[in-house]
Amino acid sequence: MLSDQKKWQEYQKKLQEATFYGQVLFGPGSLDKLGNILKEGMWRARDFRGQKALIVASKGSAKRGHLRRVQDQLRIANIDYCVFSDFSCNPTNSQVQAGLDMFEKEKCGFVVGLGGGSSIDTAKMIASDCNDYKEINVKVMAILTAPGNGAEVNRRAIVFDEREKIKKPGWAPIPTFTIIDPDLMLSVPAIMSAYQGFDALCQCMEDYLSALGEESNSDNSYNSRHLSCSMEAFRLIIKNLPIVVENPNNVKARTEIAYASTLARVRGMPRELCGIRPMVRALASCYPSIPHGANLVLLSGPYYTQLAQRVDREVDVSLRDKMIKLAKILGKEDAQSAKDFPIALENFKKRCNIGLDTLKLSNFIGEKNFNEKDVDTLVKRAREYNPPSVFNKRHGKLFRSSKEEVSLEEEDVAYKNIFREVLGCLPSA
User: Fold this and answer.
1) Per-residue pLDDT at 180
2) Model pTM?
3) Domain range for 265
4) Which runs of consecutive H residues, i.e. helices, occur in 315-429?
5) 337, 429 Cβ separation under 8 angstroms
6) Helix extents (H) in 130-166
7) Distance CA 223, CA 207 (A)
8) What is the reported pLDDT for 70?
9) Are residues 209 and 160 located together in one domain of the fold?
10) In the listed set 185, 218, 237, which residue is the last one of a domain according to the structure?
11) 360 lies in some domain
12) DSSP 3-state assignment of 192?
């Protein structure tokens, strides 16, 4: 049996092999190596030598001491820096512009994203705007303190468009150098860890159930390798997330979650238009104070219940078998139909203290009396993220996993039922 240190080395090797671009430094204590790596110009860190850094760090990173530790490491390498922290958990295009203005004023040469998805997405979009409008090649370093978003290993970033009042995905550079140090995650509150871990878990479930996630007979095919990564991550999150929620200082469980969360994202299928994602973005646009992972917790039960009903009704054997398999991994060993999957998923959420018996929309936005107008607004927003088109005929249907065509009218009914249940204004049909 591998020692923990050997296992973390194996995890770093696997993440590096799975990453298409950039260098990954993984494991407890990784941040403490940064200064010497930069000083010696090792690996892709040589891209940052002799340049000033713009550190994009949340106020929480400063409060927890992470910012100071990064500054110490940059000083070891004789790298000058300035800090940009004027952004929210849902960064806006004006906040990105403010970061870009600081980058130019301070004559920076690269960007460091320190934090979770919000910090790293903001850093990536600042670099992207430099690359697009200033025609300079700005590199990004990502230092992850909160797993789940996957921003550290992909080329997408999400920014809230203040004029259109919606969250928009954009292309952004993949970080050249990424540090995943679970020691930095010990200060994340248990409830936020639950949201972040559930976010990564949803990625695994979507990949496995997706029409794009059909298993191949070839062990060397892209789909086969990707699904293998997704299922490995799924099992690790199921095992370790309840441990992290119960004991946030458990470094070993934190390390397993950090690895699984990144692995779930590094070979991700196209997701921005599929399944539950348009509804998540719609809810986030209308109620931006809700953490991303919490949106997934709120929506996943109603969504997968609707999907399971359709799968059982259509007798889609392939998809039904997949949902039964996931239900069994989640702990419902007597699962026999697709409807057992959302039941098992809800039981798992309860183990992580984020079950719907305790987590309500009112936890984030207070008590409100919702009505059909609110439901229609959310459906309209979801439609903006998931418009009917030739491309979306395969990728973007509400029930992308279903092999049967779903009419727009059927989708609207499903959207309304799901949003009604989340808002609590009417019982779901």
Assistant:
1) 94
2) 0.87
3) 190-386+395-423
4) 317-329, 340-351, 362-365, 372-385, 392-395, 408-423
5) no
6) none
7) 10
8) 96
9) no
10) 185
11) yes
12) helix
